[in-house]
Every structure is written in C-alpha cells, then in structure tokens.
Design goal:
Chain A contains 26 helices and 26 strands. Chain A is an alpha+beta fold. Chain A has six domains: 73 residues, 2-Layer Sandwich (Alpha-Beta Plaits), CATH 3.30.70; 134 residues; 87 residues, Calcium-transporting ATPase, cytoplasmic transduction domain A; 97 residues, no CATH class; 150 residues, HAD superfamily/HAD-like (Rossmann fold, 3-Layer(aba) Sandwich), CATH 3.40.50.1000; 100 residues, Calcium-transporting ATPase, cytoplasmic domain N, CATH 3.40.1110. Chain B is mostly helical. Classes of the chains: A alpha+beta, B mainly alpha. At the A-B interface, helix 2, helix 4 and helix 5 of A face helix 1 and helix 2 of B.
C-alpha cells in the first residue's frame, strides 16, 4: 500500500480475475492498453493467479475496467480487493524466521566446528562469544512461533509440541550463555539454533500447504459482484458498491454480468446461471416476478431488479456465515504430532528433572547437574517429531500433486486417513458438470461449420459445449456475416448468403413446441431443423472409483441439490442411496448429524451449495472444475475428468499415516538409545549436534519412501 | 589469530548481506508472481511509432 501513501490523490485498488491470460503477449497487451487510460495510475498483471491489479482514481468504476479489458479481448470479472490474508503473512513470517535461523545455524556451526577440532583458551572464548552474539537475537526472533504457541497452550492448561521445544531451547541458550561468561568448555548454541532451524522448516512447509485452505470464506465473497448499476429516482443511473446498495432500489443487470444483490425481477426476460448456488448446470429461465439471488450470472438479456436484500443479507453472504460456523468444528481437530506431544512432553521433563535430582544427590554440584539436565532436554527435543510429520506429509502431497491431486493442508492427510463414510454431490462431482452432446451430433458436413460459427458467438453453456464438441471433431468455423445474439432466443447470422439460426427449438420452428431442457435447435436456410440434445454425463470411471471406495467404506451416499428426476438415474447407475433437492443448509445438517454420531465423513462436492457441507465434513475433496468456494472450502482438489483421485488420495493418506507412525517409532527408538547416554553425562555439544542431525536425516529419509505413494 | 579478526567479520558480513538481500526480495513481493517473471522476459519493447504506421 506504499503507492497509496505516496500519492496525494485518493487511489482505489481493484483486482480483476482474467482467466484468459496465457502468455507474455497477453501481459504486455493488458498492461500497455490499460496504463494510458484516463484515471488509471498503474496496472500490473499477476500471471500466477491470472489477475490484473489496477491502481486507479475513484472515478473509474470496476465496470469500466471490465469493459476496457473486454475491448482488447479479455473476459474479466471484478473481484473484491482484499488485504493479504493473515495466513499468508504467517507463512512469510515463518520463511523469514527460517532464513534468519539458517544463517545463524550455519555461522555458529562454523565456529563450533573449530571449537570441537581443538580450539582452546582465548580463541574458544572469542568463538563462544561470537556464537552467543549470533544466537541470542536469533533465538528471540526465530523462536517466537514456538514460545507464543507454548504460552497459549500452557495458559489453557494444555501441553503441545511447542512446550518441550521452548523449554529446551530457552534452557540451553541460558546455560550456554552462563558457560560463555564463566569461560566454560560446553556451549550448546549450535544445538539450540539448529533445532530451531530444523523445526522452522517443518513449520514453514506445513504453513505453506495450509495457506490456500484458510481463505474459504474470503473467496466466497469474491464471487459476488463487487457492485452494480442502480436506477436513481430521478431517472439517471449510478454505479454502487455491493455493500452500498439499499433494499428497494432498482438494479440494472446487463447480460454477462453477475448480480450484486438479491431481488425480484421487475422487467426483462432472461436466464440465470445458478451453478454457483445450486450446482445445477441447466440455466434457469426468469421473467417478471421471479426471484434472483446475488452471485448468479445473467446470461441472455438485460434485467431490472427490485432489490430485496444486499450486502451482508444476501443468500450468498448467508452461505458464507454457515461455512464459517461449520469450519470451526474442524479447527478443534488435534494434529497427530500434538497428540503425541501430550505423552512425550511430560515424559521428557520428568527424565530431565530426574537426572538433575539424581546427579545432585550423587554430589555432582548444581552446575554439573544442570548441564546434564539440559543435555537430556536437547537430545530429547522433538526435532525428529517436529520434522517427521510435515516431511512425510509434504512428500506425500508432492506425490499426489504429480497425479493431479492438490493437498492444501497437512492435517487433511491425517483426517483423510481416518475416513469411515462418504457423501457425494451429484452435479460436477459424480457427473462432469458441463453439458455434452448425448449422441454424435446429427449435422451434415455443410451444416457443422455454420453451427460452430454461431455457437462461438454465444456465451450460453450449451452453445459453448456445442462449440467445444465441434472443435474437437475437427470442424472449422465458416465465415459469417450479420452475427447477432437475440437475448433469450439464440444466435443468428448469414453464412454464404443463407440465413442460419441456432437457439431455442420454439424460436426456430414452431412457437407452440415446448422447450425441453438441454436441447438446442439449428437451422440452415430452409433445411429441416436439427435437434441437438445435451446431457451432463457421469465422470468416465465413476463406477470403478465408487467400487474401489466401497472397499474402504460401506457407507456411501449422494447428497444433491438437484431435482429428484435428475438424481435418480445417477444414483441407480452407481447403486448409491441418494437424497435430492437439498438446500445448502440441509446438506450441512446431514453432515453434522453424521459427525454428531461420531462418524468421520468425507464430503466430495463442488458447488457453492456444497460449501458449508465441505467445511463441516471431517475432510473434503473437490474437483478443480468446482467453483472457487468449493475449491477453497475443500482440503483436497483434484484435476481432470476422472474420479479415481478420490480412492488414490485415501490410500495415499493411509500410507502417510503409517510412515508417520514409523517415524514416531524411530524417534522413540533413538531416544531409548540417546537418553541413557545423556543421563549419565556422556553427551557433549558435538554428540548432541551429530545425534540431532542423524535422527532428522533418518526420519526425512523414511518420509521420502512416500514419493510414489499415489499409485 | 590476527587473520581471524579480519576474516570472521568478512564472513559474517557476507552472510548477513545474503540474508538481508533475501529478506528484502521477500518483502518487496518478488516471489508473488514467479510464473509471470519467467514469461515477462519474452515481452518485446513496444514498436516505434513510424514503422508501425509504415506496416
């Protein structure tokens, strides 16, 4: 936000999502075309997130930016500008801490090696002092994460992984400082800082994975339009932000625009793409008096709405609140490492206290006894534990990623391994979620190029599906003149001097015929009308994937928001019990009832209507074709048309859990060996450093066995 | 020993310079768009006005 503070004019910051950015020339084109426009100060493309960030004066509306991008051929959608999220800042802070700890660990190790190789007297004292100067600020800065988390846990009377870490690091640093001041031979600065370094790497890997998961609700609000054009009482129009639109005002929605508020249609006939809300791929026709909700996309013709609810009161904001509430139950999940720490921490502290007491009784003096107690703490510090879990999860996530399955959260793998029942959404999850021609398209060779040319001109889902099917078949579009889209009806144009029309069968042929769903007609000149039928087919290997899932759990069912008639055939073909016509709230209730019964539910879904259910499930999976909300609410996202990633991910999660358990066993075995040595006072700083590195290498090495776990 | 008094500060300073450079690049958002950085190198300079007219 430096830019804003430097310039006196109040600048606004807008973000537009532009999925069409594909190459360097797109970047150059957008930045070059936007920058000289009046009122725009800077435009910058973020290629990774496919977004354009614009700094502009408040006179420029997001709508104007959208049309400016449309003029140079890019479909853009304005999204509410947002500050970098808390989670992202946390990851950046951890990365900085890793960098600092890494720098310190390397330099201190350099000094320590010369001490171990025999530096004595003044040289050793100087090296100890240098190490102290590097280590003290590092421990204070890089150790914050652990100290804060340990303090929070202690205050609530709990204990977690960070408690033994904090105590170990603090005691080791304090004692080493004492040794340095008194010119003693043993300083553990290298051990303490190296421990922080290793643990921070684990923490960073974990946080980087979790980053994307936390912003579920935020993405939901980005789906609503940031604002809309309202009719002023005087007759003019003005652009208002979504939050500033009052109930009772009139909202004008152009074709291709998202609704900024809930309302009743006052004027116009069109169809709305409700897929964001209900998950249904079929566009819903609306006319005067119909209800329309914020976040849906107006497909055909301009509409005038009388606003009934806006901002925080819209249906979409309601779903956001439901998701937030549902997600809280999941945040109570205790990570496996913390569960282990509940037993580990008290054991370690008892051992350290026992060795201190033992040596005091044996008459070793408090300095010697304390040194040994600290050695016990350092050697048992759960370095292997802290690294074992994230390392295994990151390797497994990497393997899954190569199979097109993105894991957003380390704990998701832990939770996925515990799954004992599954619930599926229908549209877009078990089915592909996009219309596909039912049979081979019945078009003559001279008709197909004309149909493609017309289909390309429309944004209607069926027209797009038709265009895609024809393109895949290798059809080339015919040159057309007078291309026109008639709102609510279809597209017409002239091809080779002959008029051609693509659209509603009733528009093409006989106004009396009813328009069945997912059917479109095509007519070239006076030739008879061709009826093109579309369907939302099952994912190609859905049956096979469901079969494999049955071996994992016997409790599988469909929860769909779609009509009964649409759900029944799918349920029948997959032999799954199904509940149809559920609202997002009812889906959530179903999941919560299962949760209350102590089941671990896997929710697989894609739409905004699945958002609350995805957030409430013990763990959730969404396809990459899902809405932003579905993707952010889910713990895992898979790419592609196949449903096989679901069983693959569950098997990989179970193997990961097995490896994590092995790593715990390794860490305990290593402690059984090292702790007696430490308790008998045989551990020097050199031995501690070697032991720490080898145990870490061992668990990381074991975790690497997971790199082919997703097969 | 006298060599160390020069070499150790140099070593530490070099390491510190690397650390500072990393922290600076992190805070100025240079890792925000890694894929974009890779393709931006392919962007040509805008063509001068006259040849553009001649074409």
């Amino acid at each position: 936000m430096n830019v804003i503070s430097r310039i006196a004019l109040p600048l606004e910051h807008s973000e537009l999502s532009v999925p069409g950015i594909r190459c360097a020339s797109c970047i150059a084109r957008i930045e070059r075309e936007l920058a000289p426009l009046p009122g725009i100060h800077a435009a910058r493309v973020n290629f990774t997130s496919k977004r354009v960030l614009v700094d502009h004066e408040s006179s420029v509306t997001p709508e104007a930016l959208r049309s400016a991008l449309a003029r140079i051929g890019f479909d853009a959608e304005a999204i509410a500008a947002h500050a970098p999220t808390e989670a992202r800042r946390e990851t950046q802070r951890l990365l900085r801490a890793v960098a600092v700890a890494g720098f310190a660990a390397m330099n201190i190790m350099l000094l320590s090696v010369s001490i171990w190789s025999g530096a004595t007297g003044a040289t050793r004292a100087m090296f100890h002092w240098l190490s102290a100067l590097i280590a003290m600020p590092t421990v204070v800065y890089a150790g914050q994460t652990f100290f804060l988390s340990a303090w929070r846990a202690m205050r609530h009377g709990r204990t977690n992984m960070d408690v033994p870490i904090s105590i170990g690091v603090t005691l080791a640093t304090a004692l080493s400082l004492f040794e340095t001041i008194t010119n003693g031979p043993h300083a553990y600065f290298d051990g303490a800082v190296m421990l922080l370094f290793f643990l921070l790497i684990g923490r960073f890997l974990d946080s980087a994975m979790r980053d994307r998961a936390r912003s579920g609700v935020e993405a939901l609000l980005r789906q609503t339009a940031p604002g809309g054009t309202i009719l002023l009482p005087g007759g003019g129009t003005a652009w208002r932000k979504a939050g500033e639109i009052e109930p009772g005002t009139r909202l004008i929605v152009a074709a291709g625009e998202r609704l900024a508020a809930d309302g009743l249609v006052e004027d116009g006939t069109s169809s709305l793409d409700l897929s964001l809300i209900t998950g249904e791929s079929r566009p819903e026709p609306v006319s005067v008096g119909s209800r329309a909700v914020a976040g849906t996309l107006n497909l055909d013709a301009p509409l005038t709405l009388c606003v009934t609810a806006a901002g925080e009161n819209t249906t979409i904001a309601e779903i956001a609140r439901m998701m937030e509430a549902a997600g809280q139950s999941r945040s109570r999940y205790v990570r496996i490492a913390d569960r282990a720490a509940r037993f580990y921490a008290p054991a370690v502290h008892t051992l350290a206290a026992l060795s201190f007491a033992g040596w005091m009784i044996a008459g070793a003096g408090w300095h010697q006894s304390l040194l040994i107690a600290v050695a016990v703490l350092i050697i048992t510090c759960p370095c292997a534990l802290g690294l074992a879990v994230p390392a295994a999860q990151v390797v497994a996530a990497g393997s899954l990623m190569r199979r097109g399955i993105l894991v957003k959260d380390g704990s998701a793998l832990e939770r996925l391994a515990e799954v004992d029942c599954m619930r599926f959404d229908k549209t877009g999850t078990l089915t592909l979620g996009r219309p596909q021609p039912i049979d081979a398209l019945l078009l003559d060779p001279n008709e197909a190029p004309a149909a493609l040319a017309l289909a390309r001109a429309s944004k209607h889902p069926i027209a797009r599906a038709l265009a895609q099917a024809l393109e895949t078949a290798g059809v080339r579009a015919a040159p057309t003149q007078d291309l026109r889209e008639i709102p609510g009806m279809g597209v017409c144009g002239t091809i080779g001097g002959v008029p051609a029309r693509l659209g509603r069968p009733s528009w093409l042929d006989n106004p009396a015929t009813p328009d069945p769903a997912m059917v479109t007609g095509f007519r070239l000149g006076d030739a008879p009308m061709r009826l093109l039928r579309f369907d939302d087919p099952l994912r190609p290997d859905a049956a096979c994937a469901i079969g494999q899932l049955r071996q994992i759990s016997s409790d599988l069912a469909i929860l769909s928001g779609d009509r009964d008639e649409a759900v029944a055939p799918v349920a029948c073909r997959l032999a799954l019990p199904a509940a149809a016509a559920l609202t997002p709230g009812e889906k959530l209730t179903e999941i919560e009832a299962l949760r209350a019964a102590g089941r671990h539910v896997l929710m697989v879904g894609d739409g905004l209507n699945d958002g609350p259910a995805l957030a409430a499930g013990h763990v959730s999976i969404a396809p990459a074709s899902a809405s932003d909300v579905g993707q952010t609410a889910a713990d895992l996202v898979f790419v592609g048309d196949s449903l096989m990633p679901v069983p693959i991910a569950i098997r990989a999660a179970r193997r990961t859990l097995a490896i994590v358990r092995q790593n715990f066993a390794l860490a305990i075995g290593y402690n059984l060996l090292a702790v007696p040595l430490a308790m008998f006072g045989l551990v020097t700083p050199l031995l501690a450093a070697v032991a720490m590195s080898t145990s870490s290498l061992l668990v990381v090495g074991n975790a690497l066995r997971l790199r082919n776990c997703a097969r | 020993m006298s060599g160390l008094t020069i070499l150790i500060p140099i070593a530490l300073l070099l390491g510190l310079a690397g650390l500072v450079a990393f922290l600076w690049s992190l805070s100025t958002g240079q890792y925000d768009d890694l894929d974009g950085a890779a393709v931006r190198i392919l962007i040509d300079e805008p063509a001068p006005e006259e040849p553009a007219d001649a074409r």
